[in-house]
């Protein structure tokens, strides 16, 4: 209301409405700000956001079936899988035509590999059939139904066609189901067989071990941060360098050092045996298990806990403790009722940092974790580089991301993200 | 407690010394004795040792040497939380994560006082500073003056007999400071609490205190009631530090009949009251308050010495006129005159003659 006078809107000196004039001036400023951040923005988009979105989208992408066997998918649409009957000749003919194109382009083995995630045997079936189907002529050699069953008896199995039909959509929930130890069967969602259920357990273990690591970082870091915040500038600087020292050493070197320390012929065991605390035959197993992972990762992530705690503690004036004591509080009460509550934001910031870092940690568990001390990220790496099941890897990665965001949200609800201070 | 009378020493410092580094003494040989119910201010420039004294009394610093007694009991080895001394800090030190009521309730909780009694005492303490309506607020939602009131009532809520205040009004604006000065002194006298107040603001010290201890260089330079401190400074530091002051340097010519004749460095002669000088020939610094300088030589007693002065600057300040003169070769000599109807307004360049009563001018240490 206030920008309207009796004679209309307030005008700038040159006669244009003041609001428009202001907007123009601001637009130029905003444009300049945007230009300044543009290089970084483009860099982040190209090298970070785009690859991640691309990778995560693989967790639901399934266009390989419909792209390789377009006619077959269309023909299967009218087939009722629950009838128990094999599809009719039209499906087999469509399949032969699709395969002829696919074999030409050498795409049929990739399709076999993809479908093999759903049902073992598909990979070899497609490879073997491919060799023999090359000789068939998609027009002259009709009908195909019996010929195909001759080539591989799998084509005479109703299950084969059920799998093809189930996974013929462009998008699939199959990878996500796999990621939580379930699978998409023609009859709906079902659990994986008992012996293949490892991923949920791995998720659980990753969460619990990350919590333990965060907890031990708090326990070990708090006194150090306190000392840093309450010593003279000289001492604090020296201590800070000691805290930061690990940052200047390669992560790989530090992790390998732990291997030297913890292995059965390592420094700790040798010392324990030498002073006779542990019998030679019965050396402690400190590495290639969860203990090893927790020890090494606590050490590596400790600075991320200490630094936010330190910067928060620095802002707590010593007069608060003095005031509490002058009011009659013992040292412990003064600490617990007055100092500690004010240092909680630092603990919160450090915990989020350490927890999120550790939940996705890869190198250290890979080196010192053995089989029992590995994290979900090691499994993701396995699917990326060894089993080449990128869809599953992407699904696992997406779940990990969602879990972290959920925990972050929960933390915000419980503690409040405003209470987190990095300095 | 039972046999302590009002004039017996309640707080006592005896030969107290304090050093932080083992080389320099921050507090040198401090002796001080306060009766119960007194409002004593420790005044001094920063680094004079006044805050260190307060911290030793509160228990946050230990005396390197000497004895500090509270109500006859040596408290050197009693930790701060057992001393039962209320304290108000310069930056208020209100706990930011607690409400005002929780802040006040804290000293009562640690003393294990029951809930209903606690609430009653908190409300009573808030009532003393007219802040009952703010019980549920957080300290950050209060203005500086309000925070200071809360800090004060928190220091009083557990009914200590001794309250220490460390420059509590330092961060407030002038008007608020004056209001709170008045409130604090009233409250202290009403409740009969013994108060030790530290400040570097001399106006605050003069208006609030029963006695003021002027600190410099780790020693008490003078311990006296405000009027005595202002009118009868015992040495040139106190004279300079308290209020505005003119100093002239010279040598004592003779001391006769309680009046010292001083020859200034430019040869002029003046009369002064000998305070820190005992015999002729001593160097001295004479000190005269701007409002005690007389511009009308006829009003001086017969035979009094006068000085020639040239007016350099005339400043109209409302209630008073402040005139800067060149006297005895120094051009920072100031006189203050009341803005009365018959008062002359001097003009720059004017030559006048000034003088004073010998007892208003004090010959102090050089």
The second-level CATH architecture of the largest domain in chain A is: Orthogonal Bundle
In total, the number of strands of chain A is 4
Helix content of chain B: 10-25%
CATH second-level architecture of the largest domain in chain B: 3-Layer(aba) Sandwich
Tell me the radius of gyration of chain A. Answer: 32 Å
Uncertain regions spanning at least 5 consecutive residues of chain A: none
| Terminal Cα span of chain A | 42 Å
Oligomerization category of the chains in this entry: heterodimer
**In CATH's first tier, which class of the largest domain in chain A applies?**
Mainly Alpha
Query: What's the rounded overall pLDDT mean of chain B?
Result: 88
Question: Main sheet of chain A?
Answer: 2 strands, antiparallel
* Adjacency order of strands in the biggest sheet of chain A: 1-2
What gross morphology of chain B would you assign?
elongated
Question: How are strands sequenced across the largest beta sheet of chain B?
Answer: 6-7-8-3-9-10
CATH topology heading of the largest domain in chain A: MetI-like fold
If you average the pLDDT of chain A, what whole number results? 86
Per the CATH scheme, the topology name of the largest domain in chain B is Rossmann fold
Compute the number of helices of chain B: 8
Rg over CA atoms of chain B: 25 Å
Q: What is the percentage of strand-forming residues of chain B?
A: 25-35%
């Amino acid at each position: 209301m206030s920008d309207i006078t009796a004679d209309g809107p307030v005008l700038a000196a040159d006669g244009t409405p003041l609001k428009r004039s202001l907007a123009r001036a601001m637009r130029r400023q905003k444009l300049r700000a945007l230009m300044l951040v543009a290089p970084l923005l483009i860099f982040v988009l190209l090298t970070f956001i785009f690859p991640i979105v691309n990778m995560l989208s693989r967790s639901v992408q399934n266009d390989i079936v419909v792209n390789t066997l377009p006619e077959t998918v269309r023909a299967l649409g009218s087939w009722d899988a629950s009838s128990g009957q094999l599809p009719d000749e039209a499906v087999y003919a469509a399949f032969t035509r699709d395969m002829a194109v696919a074999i030409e382009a050498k795409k049929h083995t990739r399709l076999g590999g993809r479908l093999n995630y759903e049902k073992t045997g598909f990979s070899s079936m497609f490879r073997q059939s491919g060799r023999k189907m090359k000789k068939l002529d998609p027009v002259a050699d009709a009908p195909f139904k019996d010929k195909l069953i001759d080539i591989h008896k799998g084509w005479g199995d109703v299950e084969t066609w059920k799998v093809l039909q189930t996974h013929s959509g462009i998008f699939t929930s199959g990878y996500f189901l796999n990621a939580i130890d379930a699978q998409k069967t023609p009859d709906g969602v079902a659990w994986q067989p008992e012996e293949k259920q490892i991923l949920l357990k791995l998720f659980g273990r990753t969460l619990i071990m990350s919590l333990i690591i965060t907890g031990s970082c708090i326990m070990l870091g708090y006194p150090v941060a306190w000392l840093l915040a309450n010593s003279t500038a000289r001492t604090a600087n020296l201590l800070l360098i000691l805290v930061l020292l690990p940052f200047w050493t390669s992560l790989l070197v530090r992790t390998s050092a732990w291997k030297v320390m913890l292995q059965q012929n390592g420094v700790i065991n040798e010392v324990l045996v030498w002073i006779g605390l542990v019998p030679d035959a019965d050396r402690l197993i400190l590495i290639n298990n969860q203990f090893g992972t927790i020890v090494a990762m606590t050490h590596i992530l400790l600075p991320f806990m200490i630094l936010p705690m330190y910067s928060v503690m620095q802002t707590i004036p010593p007069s608060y403790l003095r005031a509490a004591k002058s009011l009659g509080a013992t040292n412990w009460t003064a600490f617990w009722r007055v100092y500690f509550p004010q240092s909680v934001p630092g603990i919160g910031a450090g915990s989020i940092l350490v927890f999120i870092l550790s939940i996705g940690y890869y190198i250290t568990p890979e080196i010192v974790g053995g089989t029992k001390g590995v994290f979900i990220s090691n499994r993701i790496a396995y699917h990326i580089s060894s089993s080449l099941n990128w869809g599953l890897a992407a699904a696992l990665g997406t779940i990990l991301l969602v879990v972290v965001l959920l925990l972050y949200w929960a933390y915000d609800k419980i503690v409040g993200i405003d209470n987190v201070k990095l300095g | 407690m039972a046999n302590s009378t009002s004039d017996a020493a309640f707080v006592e410092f005896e030969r107290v010394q304090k050093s932080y580094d083992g080389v320099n003494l921050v507090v040198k040989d401090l002796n001080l004795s306060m009766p119960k119910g007194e409002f004593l201010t420790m005044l001094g420039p920063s680094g004079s040792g006044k805050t260190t004294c307060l911290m030793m009394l509160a228990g946050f610093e230990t005396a390197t040497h000497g004895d500090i007694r509270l109500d006859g009991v040596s408290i050197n080895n009693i930790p701060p939380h057992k001393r039962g001394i209320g304290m108000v800090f310069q930056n208020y030190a209100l706990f930011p994560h607690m409400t005002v009521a929780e802040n006040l309730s804290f000293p009562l909780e640690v003393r294990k006082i029951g809930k209903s009694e606690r609430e009653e005492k908190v409300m009573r303490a808030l009532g003393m500073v007219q802040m009952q309506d703010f019980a549920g607020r957080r300290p950050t939602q209060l203005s500086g003056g309000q925070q200071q009131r809360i800090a004060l009532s928190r220091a009083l809520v557990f009914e200590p007999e001794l309250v220490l205040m460390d420059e509590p009004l330092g961060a407030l604006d002038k008007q608020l400071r004056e209001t709170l000065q008045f409130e604090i002194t009233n409250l202290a006298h009403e409740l009969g609490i013994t108060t030790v107040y530290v400040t570097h603001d001399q106006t605050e010290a003069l208006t609030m205190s029963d006695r003021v201890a002027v600190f410099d260089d780790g020693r008490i330079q003078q311990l006296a009631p405000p009027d005595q401190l202002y009118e009868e400074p015992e040495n040139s530091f106190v004279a300079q530090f308290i209020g505005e002051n003119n100093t002239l340097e010279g040598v004592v010519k003779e001391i006769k009949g309680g009046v010292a004749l001083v020859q200034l460095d430019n040869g002029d002669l003046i009369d002064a009251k000998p305070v820190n000088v005992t015999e002729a020939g001593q160097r001295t610094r004479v000190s005269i308050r701007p409002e005690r300088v007389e511009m009308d030589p006829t009003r001086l007693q017969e035979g009094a010495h006068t000085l020639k002065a040239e007016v350099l600057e005339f400043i109209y300040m409302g209630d008073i006129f402040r005139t800067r003169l060149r006297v005895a070769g120094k051009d920072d000599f100031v006189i203050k005159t009341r803005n009365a109807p018959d008062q002359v307004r001097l003009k720059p360049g004017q030559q006048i003659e000034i003088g004073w009563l010998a007892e208003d001018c004090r010959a102090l240490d050089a």
